[in-house]
Amino acid sequence: MSANGLVTVTIDDREVEVPKGTGLVEAAAHAGIEIPVFCYEPRLGPPVGACRMCLVEIEGMPPKPQAACTLTVQDGMVVKTAQTSAMAADAQNATLEFILVNHPLDCPVCDKGGECPLQDLTFRYGPGTTRMTFDKRTYDKPIPISPTIALDRERCILCYRCTRFSELVSEDGQLVARNRGAQSLIATFEDQPYRAPFSGNVIELCPVGALTSTLYRFEGRPWEINTVPTVCGLCPVGCNVSATIREGKVRRVSSRNHPEVDQGWICDKGRFAYPALHSGDRVTAPLVRSDNPSRFDETSWEDALDRVERVGRAAGETAVLALSGSETVEIAYALSRLVRAGFGSAHVVLPERGSDAIDPYRAPLSAIAAAEAVVIIAEEPVAERAPIVDLWIRAARRAGARVISIGPTGVEQRAPGSGPAAVAELADSTTPLGAELAGAASVALVWSGPHGGGGEELARLAHALGLHEKPGSGAYYLPATPNGRAVDAAWAAAGEGVAGPLDHIGLLVVSGEEAAADPHVRELAGRADAVVAVTMFADDVRGMADVVLPGTGYLERDGTMINLEGRIQRLRRATNPPGRADLDWIGELAARFGVSIEVPESLPLAAARLQAPLPGRSEAVALETGGRAEPSRPLVAPKLRLARYRPLFSGAMVARVAQLGFQRPEAVIELSPEDAERRSIGSGDTVTVLANGTSVELRARINARLVDGTARAAEEHVRGLGDLIEVRP
After folding, report:
1. Where along the chain do the CATH 3.30.70.20 domains lie?
2. Distance, CA of 653 to CA of 670 (rounded, Å)
3. Was domain 133-277 assigned CATH 3.30.360.10?
């Protein structure tokens, strides 16, 4: 071995130097030599050598084929693959013959045909004929292991990629191998639906057509599709994805491995929500309210823009813009320029405020997995707000990291609103936790809700722990919206002026489905003289909007988004929207006011500039909001503090995909065992939740990890309730 830690290995007479400990499959790839594999997948943990496709001959070892995926290179190792070894070639040929004994030759109708590793490797390494004359084994097909995944068991080659993902990556434990030997088969635990936020990843992991998407099944073949690389715009992680397009429509969304962001995994919301783009209630042309307030009439773009211009001029400085946080930097900037420079208003409702305080402590998400200690201050579950972050935390725990969770359901239980107190405790090196973190070589800090002041609190803790002096450390503030910080910066950059008090609202411009669903925005709409909504779905603004302009989804946009790391990422339009592109009609409307919305040619540089502190960021805008601020008033018995969270599987797009219905949150309220016992409530009981003169009926669920005095529920089930509630059986 050389002094720099490299070892020399010879593969098919080709000498290559690689770091000590490198797997033999990777070393061969480094030398430009393919060792074919089925079960091997580095992201799934240690190799298992299940498929035996990677058999090679190694000089000096017992005279039999060796599984390359289970070996690491040694200095002086001499390896022969099937290209130079008759033994290895015969072994690979026999392995493929064995796999194909019961594998159906239904490539013409199999959805994996044309992009199937088994098909490819059979052509390259397999036998040209078969010696088998008996009938192949068959099973009932397809078996719906969930509404989104179908299983064709006769195609399965028992590589165990899917079960290893379920066990070792997502850790849901729902996909298992049943029976042994020739009777082994893949199944869900107790035949229950595979209900896990990352279940769809097994479709991509499957090297054959055994696991397929029910949404994509029989929708396209590899030779009749186009693939567009883009970024998911449904949560603040910004996973890298590819959109499969056929006949102008999105037919599939799959992962596009970014090792620092997502490691090639995406959640089921990002994978399966795309059919909402083609929903039957999609707004495809401008609408205006008819004489019946609950109905809309279709109108032309010219008429719609005339109406918006008219009410915009009349409203002037009394106009208000409500942004969702899902807009691209360019769309948010264009709308902000229209309202600020065109209408002359400085009033805005922002989904959340950005924070520059943690910028010095930013790090790639992948750094979480390598951290020695991970601290999670979470009032809202990390898996609901930024699901990939939850996978990185699980990876850190598996690697031996000390994971400290603080919150209503954390290992360190804290009541809602106690984040600042937790920060003070962790920052104090005289406390046990503070001393432990101060001595850790690398620390990852994660803050998940509430919005107000979270970035500053996290930065304060990062500074106290000296993260800037600890390589591999980072601080991660999880926004509530996909692009909220950039939207905040875009508003600040779009114009000057400070908004004063606003007693009268002349016009409310609502951008996106998230803003339309916000109770505060809906309350403002009831006070406004006119409401213009930009949305994909009219039902979301029925009875509220006077003019509806067709909105777009993230797969229909070109633009820039900034994820929770502060990473600038490019959205590429995968398909055309049914209406006009956002920047087209905003530009035309802005031109009527003599306002330019021209975005700099270099979009990434423009977005980077928006990240920096800008004049106007700290304006005292009267209607500006930055998310809910947790009250500091004490808990009054017998009331409970309500901890809300926004479920991952919620929102307008998820609601329009029937197959995702089983993933949506149940109408339950979680109680601690002590609080449930005090109220004589059992798990599964129907209870009445009361606050502020409003009541809802929910089913009770006992959560042994929930802190006393706190109840937790999905936001959509407790909308309109206050922060202190009563729960009655």
Report:
1. 133-277
2. 26
3. no
Q: What is the DSSP string of 602-652?
A: -HHHHHHHHHS--TTTT---TT---SPPPP-PPP-TT-EEEEEE--SS-SH
CA-based end-to-end distance of the chain: 71
Would you list the DSSP string of 390-410? HHHHHHHHHTT-EEEEEETTS
The angle subtended at Cα 144 by Cα 138 and Cα 146, nearest 5°, is 150
The residue among 625, 646, 630 whose CA lies nearest residue 523 is 625
- Rg of the chain on CA atoms, in Å: 28
Residues 60-84: pLDDT tens digits? 888 899 999 999 999 999 999 999 9
Mean pLDDT over 248-273 rounds to 96
What's the confidence (pLDDT) of residue 134? 85
Q: What is the number of helices (H) and of strands (E) in the chain? A: 21, 33
By CB atoms closer than 10 A (0-12, 13-18, 19+), residue 62 is exposed
- Residues 327 and 483 sit within 8 Å (Cβ to Cβ): yes
* CB distance 145 to 151 below 8 Å: yes
- CATH fold of 640-728 reads Barwin-like endoglucanases (2.40.40)
| Both structure tokens of 327 | 């807009």
H or E, element range at 297:
strand 296-298
What three-state secondary structure class fits 651?
coil
Report how far residue 392's alpha carbon sits from residue 661's, in angstroms, rounded to the nearest whole number. Answer: 26
Q: Can you say whether residue 472 is alpha, beta or left, with left for phi > 0 and alpha for psi between -120 and 50 degrees? A: left
617 CA to centre of own chain: 28
Cα separation, 445 vs 422, whole angstroms: 12
Closest CA relative to residue 334, chosen from 598, 540, 72: 598
Residues making up the chain, counted from first to last: 729
Neighbouring CB atoms inside 10 A of 181's CB total 5
Q: What is the largest CA-CA distance in the chain?
A: 88
CATH number for the domain whose boundaries are 6-99: 3.10.20.740
The CATH architecture to which 359-477 belongs is: 3-Layer(aba) Sandwich (3.40)
CB atoms < 10 A from the CB of 91, how many?
A: 22
Whole-structure pTM value: 0.91
Contact between residue 55 and residue 91 where contact means Cβ atoms under 8 Å apart: yes
CB 519 within 8 A of CB 719: yes
**Are 449 and 715 spatial neighbours (Cβ–Cβ below 8 Å)?**
no
Token pair recorded at residue 328: 């691209």
Comparing CA positions, the residue from 156, 502, 381, 354 lying closest to residue 362 is 354
Under 8 Å between Cβ of 455 and 355: yes
Question: Which range has the worst mean pLDDT, 147-151, 269-273, 481-485?
Answer: 481-485
CA distance 715 to 708: 20
Domain covering 287-354+484-611 assigned CATH 3.40.50.1100 in the classification? no
Q: What is the DSSP letter of 623?
A: T
